[in-house]
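step 4 of 6: structure.
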Amino acid sequence: MIGIESISSYVPSSSIDNIQQGKGFGEDEAFIRGKIGALTLPIANDIESAAYMAGEAINRLCQKTNICHREIDVIALVTQNPDHSGIPHTSGLLHGALGLNEHTACFDIGLGCSGYVYGLSILQAFMKEMGYKRGVLVTSDQYSRIINRNDRVTSLLFGDAATATLLSESGTWGISKPLLATSGKMGSALMKKNGALHMHGRQVFDFASREVPKQLRDYLQVNCLSLEEIDAVCLHQGSAAIVKSIAKRFPGNEDKFINGLERFGNTVSSSIPLLLEQHVLDTDYENVLISGFGVGLSWGTNLLSRLH
Amino acid sequence: MLSLEEIQNILKKSGLSIVVDESSYTKTFTDIGIDSLDLYAFLSEVELEKGIKIEDNEIETISSLKSLNELLCCKMENKE
């Protein structure tokens, strides 16, 4: 059975002090800590493109798991800020940079904050169909390149990062069947216009605080589960306010909703795998819900269960 | 029209531990401790509670519980 074997990440060393940045917008430290959640935002430099950061995340994954690059059968790369505007596809550039086997399949997935939930199921199904043994799901985005630093709605939120998740037959976390949803008519709430990201804060907040709890409940119901059987919930880290707003709709279980915003901010499709890497994989948890939501608007929820 | 009791209840549902009294009506949201993100959460709960939609241009007209109540009165009358 194909499951998650390991996760590694790459976070740029340069960062913005978000408390200082907040002061520039008239926000105090309490607001940044309590509502935004990110005290620092990692920012990619000119060299740290989507392909570069993805490559570094894969190098770390290979080192951690003692596999060589040429043993990778397939790479699926989730990004919305591809090198060279996506031509050629960033996973192709990554293939060249890492010197991968010619028989390695590479493709990009153009999703944002729901990308990891989608990506796991896409890659798992593809590997099963193709009979592949090792696949890597990469997430890599530098939203800092499309942020207008004078825009208080987006400037305080987004950080850059990349992750690499190894899926293999030796995986220790099983991937269930996800619930996926899209509201294309709401797409303009979070959209790149004239080269910069524009976010309608209230619409995105309302969407997340209403639709995500509903999908989490639907997921539990469809799978005959209760939240009491779930050890942790890894939500996309939109902001501290959004994570809290969703968590409070599950009274008595708020502590299960992990907050990992402090050092990274909202890293788009990397936020869930960063949580898994740092707060889940080395624990004795058995069942973990993951839920990604954002650009699209698109949202998806799935269950990861430890394999015995 | 929201009574103090209803406001207190909605604040609680919004996850805000803010206590309001009669004097709160005329104070700005900021002065009673509701920041910009709290306001999203609060108005979202108001919409659910009252079964109405507060448009973006209407938000610009409300800065206090008093002006929120005036808007709600208007909207409830139109609804009827």
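step 5 of 6: annotate
 - Residues 10 and 49 of chain B are 8 Å apart (CA to CA).
 - The interface with chain A takes residues 15, 35-38, 40-41, 43-44, 56, 59 of chain B (CB under 8 Å).
step 6 of 6: archive
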